[in-house]
Every structure is written in C-alpha cells, then in structure tokens.
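Here is the promised in-class demo. Please do not try to memorize the tokens; focus on the logic of going from shape to residues.
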C-alpha cells in the first residue's frame, strides 16, 4: 500500500478508502468519479472529469486495473472517459452516495458492495468552490491540454455549438422556443453548426471550438465547457444569459472569468434570460448581428478558411469628402480551404459603402474606352432591345447602346446618380434581394465583383428566368499574376477569377456562351451567360494560395520597409495611395497625395491625415514622388514628366 500513498501524495487531492477485510490484494481499484450534480455535463467536467489526466497517469503506474465508478450512464461521461482511454468495460455503476461536506451538493458515489479499495478525488464542488485554489486551475489546464496540443489557426469564422438536446440536467430545463428558426438562420448564413449529440468523443467538438474565431453558445454548460474551459483567442456570443455573466460574482463564474481572460477570449451577451424559463432569440436582430461576417465561402459555401493576413483599423473606403467621418474595419483576408478563393471575412455594410457619399473616380477616358468595348460586345452578342442594368452610375452604358439601337432601359441601383438620363426607368434596390421576374437581359459592368453573395444573385435571376446576362469584371487572374496589391478590398470582396465566375454560373444552369478579354489601360473580362438547362455544375476551381501570400505578406512587408525621404508625395490617392500609406512606417515624411481628379484636391484622403494635392501645385525640386502600383501607373508617370522633367520617383 505504501507505494500508492507515496505516489498519490504528489496529487494532493486523492483520498484512499480501503474497506477490504482481508490482506488479499484487490482485483481492481475503484475510482469514485461521480457527484450528486454530475448529471449536468458542466458540473461533471468541473467536479470529476478534470481529474482524468491524473487518474490516467496513476493507472499507468498501478499494477491493479482501475474501474471508474459512476452514478449513472450518460453519453457525455462515456465520451470523455473514452477520450482518456477508459472504455465501457472499465466503468461500474452504483446509485449509493455518501456525504463529503456540509451541504447537500457535497456527495460522491460509493460502490454497492461493502468491501472495496477506492480512490476518491477531493472534488471541486461547484457550489462550495474556492477561487483561490490554484490547484483547480492546474487541473483544468491539464484536462484542457489533453484535448489541445497547440493553439489552432482560426479557420472557422463563426461556429454554433448547439446545446445537447438529450441528457440535459432536468433541474435546469428550459425550452428554446424558436430554435428551429434560429438554426435555419445560421444554416442560411453558413455558420458552422456543431451537433454535439452526434459525437462519441469531445475531440471533434473541441477542435471546432479552437478553430473558431467567433463562437455562439447558450449560457450554461455549453458556455462553461466550450468557452470557459477550452476556447482561446475567440469571441464568444452568448445567447440566453440566464446567470447574468457580467455581474455574476459566484466563485465558479469568477473562476470561469479568470480562465476566459487567461485565454484572451472576449464575451458578448447577445440576449439575457431567466433561469429555468423558456426563451427565444430575436431572429431579425441576430441576423443583423452576423450580417457583416462572411461565414461561408462566397464561391463554394465551405465554412473553413486559411487566414492569409489581417489588417486592423483599415479605412472602409477611399473617398475625399471632408464632411464624412472616417470609419475603419478589420481587413481580414482569408482563402477558402476548398476552392482557394481569396476573400474578405468582414463585410462593410453596403448601405454605407454604396450610399451617395461614395465617390466613384471612374469617369475618366480609360473608362469610356472600356464602356465602348462592352457596348460593342453586347450589341454583337444579342438582338435584344430591352435591358436592365444593375449599378449603372450615371448611365454611360445606356448612352452607348442607345446610339446604335432603339432600346428600353431600366436601372436597378442603390442610389440614383444625379446625371442619370430621365428616359431611363430607375428602380432603387439591392440586386441580391431583387425579384427579376419579367426581365430577360441583364447588364452588370464592374458590379458583380462588388456583390456580397453573388450566388444569391445568380439564384435570383435563375428563379426569375432571366435568359441572358452580360458581365464585365476586372481581370482578377491578370491582376494576381502582376501581384497587384489591390485585388481585394472593401468593395471587391472576393477573388472573381475566370474559373470562379464560370463555375458559379454553372451551378445555376448558366453557360458561358461567349467572353472577351479586354485590354485597355486596365484589363477586364466580359462575359455573356445564358440560361441553358443542359448546363451542369463544373468542377470546383482552384488557385495557388501562395500567389495571394506574395502580395498580402511579402509585398506588404516590402512597402512597410520602404525608406522615405522628407517631402514625399504619394500618387495616386484613392484606394491605391491609401493602401500603400496604411503600411508605410515613414508616414511622418509623407506630405500628402497627388491626384489628377480635381474633385479631390485640397481634401483629406479618407482614413489618412493627409490632403490630396493637384500635381501642378508641387515644388518638384524638393519633393520625392512615390508611385503606387496601379493600372494607371504609366499614364501617371507620363503626366508628371510633362509637368517637370526632373522628378525624383520612388516605385512601389
Ligand atoms: Zn470555396
């Protein structure tokens, strides 16, 4: 016996109960591992399961096998026990309990037979808990370490760890009144839902917890176990907070708060509740809460992503309008694990992005050239006379098409441009929610890549029977091969390469009937898609993720390390200048931005503290001009050289 006493003393919390009458060694040793409140999973883990790493170690050292003594059989108990190598054949059951302290909660299970050898942990009874007991945190951390090898990469944007629907603690019963509605919202949005009842191990559940950036849980065991004990560096959204988590100073919640802090989790109470009382979640409000998080891949709907890079406090737009207050977001770039499509995880509200304050600097001659090309492409590929254009700005396409053909033209946009010709029928709306019934031919010029959910748009037009779609988008494949830093931004929220757009349309029986690669000052891809029910979904496309990293890790690092002399100007302003400026370390040496767009002159560039100047107003004898990599680079340099032939240029 002395062997065990010596070994056990290291753990401090184990007691030995020996009621054997003879000196014959026990056939097995009981481990008392159930408490009166162990019928709640949260209680059982904190009170009992936390001892399992130590019990496992003891078993290795013991020549006599262990039998885990439980009060009753529950799936979560056998799941966790099996995670620690104890199978059903290693478990025995008894309903007998003995007192272990002053209150009714302090009870543990004992065998039925009178003579036995048993180890009993000094349980951390949740209602008789001491938060200053450092040993508790040690036990919790050892338990966690069994499941967590190292910090996981956050590949899942949002997960919902569903509360178990069976074996719940009957005293804490509450009905989730609109659970089905809530779950269908999460499914539509692509939130990764974990059905805990399906598992015979906690490993897959805890793996999802560790990989999730945001975790939605109900208050109670689901919160305590997943967020309190396992999660790290995650944001936790609590629904039905029936314990008043923020103000709850009970010892067990104090301990959970300490663990949450240590693992750098943040908490958001979405809705409050009342203990043991039915509850529901405000679906519209929750929808609003998660609407700006992209939970599933924009192309293939997978809910796992590889993080590429993340830039905090990034300006949401790049206008120059002094009456607008700057706003920022976490510019978080991820690549889908299934189709490798690069996309932003956080969406900027389109209602803000595409409101009338949004200044489009696309009215230059380079755009006129593009629009003429698109007009030719459309006229050559259809005899249609009735068109609906989505996002038409001031109606340039109408002007071009109507010169060649008598047409009936409708514009669907989120705001009406003041210069839109009056003969155009204008509809205010968002194409991702619009009913296209009765429409035959649609045009989207540099709009499709702005959609937050292009699949929803295609689904909509298919449902309405739209037969032809003309689309022009930036040539993403070309931009990627040139390592253009601005492939993805708050407006172009996903990598819409050739294969990706053709794949998405194929999912809804649209065939790419024709396309044209436009190469002007910038390159574009122009498509004609037609509804053809013989079209079957194509194979999921792919892109080399390393190419994204070349831009958003390597190129960004080189911008950061660029040494700037005093009196530097960045050209142009807008998204290109803003992007470079964000990363520059030597911001102090930047005086401002240069831009040919007179509407920007002497106004601040959004998201910076610097003004935009007319290139003709600069003293080039003392200035250095930092030229950003952008489609208009050559045009810009030629323009500046015409002003002064001895300009000091720096290129990024
Ligand atoms: Zn994907």
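The designed amino acids, position by position:
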């Amino acid at each position: 016996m002395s062997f065990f006493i010596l070994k056990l003393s290291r753990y401090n919390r184990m007691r030995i109960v020996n009621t054997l009458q003879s000196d014959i060694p026990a056939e097995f040793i009981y481990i008392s591992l159930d408490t009166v409140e162990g019928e709640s999973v949260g209680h059982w883990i904190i009170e009992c399961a936390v001892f399992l790493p130590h019990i496992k170690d003891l078993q290795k050292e013991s020549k006599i096998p262990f039998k885990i003594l439980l009060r009753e059989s529950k799936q979560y108990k056998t799941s966790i026990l099996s995670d620690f190598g104890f199978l059903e054949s290693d478990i025995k059951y008894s309903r007998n309990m003995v007192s272990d302290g002053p209150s009714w909660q302090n009870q543990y299970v004992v065998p039925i037979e009178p003579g036995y050898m048993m180890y009993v942990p000094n349980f951390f009874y949740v209602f008789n808990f001491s938060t200053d007991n450092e040993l508790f945190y040690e036990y919790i951390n050892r338990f966690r370490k069994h499941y967590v090898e190292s910090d996981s990469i956050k590949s899942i944007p949002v997960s919902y760890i569903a509360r178990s629907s069976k074996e719940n603690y009957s005293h804490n019963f509450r009905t989730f009144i609109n659970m089905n509605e809530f779950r269908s919202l999460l499914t539509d949005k692509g939130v990764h839902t974990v059905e805990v009842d399906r598992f015979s191990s906690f490993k897959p559940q805890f793996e999802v917890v560790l990989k999730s950036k945001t975790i939605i849980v109900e208050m109670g065991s689901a919160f305590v176990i997943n967020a309190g004990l396992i999660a790290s560096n995650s944001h936790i959204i609590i629904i039905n907070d029936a314990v008043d988590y923020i103000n709850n100073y009970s010892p067990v919640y104090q301990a959970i708060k300490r663990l949450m802090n240590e693992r750098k989790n943040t908490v958001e109470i979405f809705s409050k509740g009342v203990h043991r009382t039915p509850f529901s979640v405000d679906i519209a409000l929750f929808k609003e809460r998660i609407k700006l998080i992209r939970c599933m891949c924009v192309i293939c709907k997978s809910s796992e992503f590889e993080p590429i890079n993340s830039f905090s406090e990034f300006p949401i737009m790049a206008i120059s309008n002094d009456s607008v207050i700057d706003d920022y977001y976490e510019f978080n770039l991820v690549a889908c694990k299934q189709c490798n499509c690069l996309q932003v995880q956080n969406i900027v509200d389109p209602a803000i992005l595409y409101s009338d304050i949004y200044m489009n600097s696309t009215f230059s001659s380079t755009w006129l050239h593009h629009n003429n090309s698109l007009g030719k492409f459309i006229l050559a590929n259809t005899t249609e006379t009735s068109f609906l254009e989505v996002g038409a700005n001031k109606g340039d396409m109408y002007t071009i098409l109507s010169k060649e053909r008598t047409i009936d033209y409708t514009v669907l946009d989120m705001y009406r441009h003041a210069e839109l010709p009056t003969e155009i029928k204008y509809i205010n709306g968002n194409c991702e929610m619009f009913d296209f019934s009765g429409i035959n031919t649609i045009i989207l010029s540099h709009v499709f890549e702005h959609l937050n959910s292009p699949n929803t748009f295609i689904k909509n037009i298919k449902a309405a029977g739209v037969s032809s779609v003309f689309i022009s988008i930036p040539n993403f494949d070309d931009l990627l091969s040139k390592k253009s830093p601005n492939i993805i931004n708050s407006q172009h929220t996903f990598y819409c390469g050739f294969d990706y757009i053709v794949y998405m349309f194929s999912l809804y029986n649209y065939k790419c009937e024709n396309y044209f690669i436009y190469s002007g000052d910038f390159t574009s891809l122009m498509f004609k898609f037609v509804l053809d029910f013989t079209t079957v979904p194509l194979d999921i496309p792919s892109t080399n993720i390393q190419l994204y990293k070349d831009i958003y890790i390597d190129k960004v690092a080189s911008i950061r390390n660029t040494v700037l002399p005093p009196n530097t100007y960045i050209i142009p302003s807008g998204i290109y200048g803003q992007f470079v400026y964000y990363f520059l370390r030597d911001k102090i040496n930047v005086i401002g931005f240069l831009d040919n767009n007179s509407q920007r002159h002497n106004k601040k560039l959004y998201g910076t503290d610097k003004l935009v100047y007319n290139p003709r107003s600069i003293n080039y004898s003392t200035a250095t001009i930092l030229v950003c990599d952008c489609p208009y680079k050559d045009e810009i340099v030629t323009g500046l050289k015409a002003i002064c032939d001895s300009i000091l240029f720096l290129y990024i």
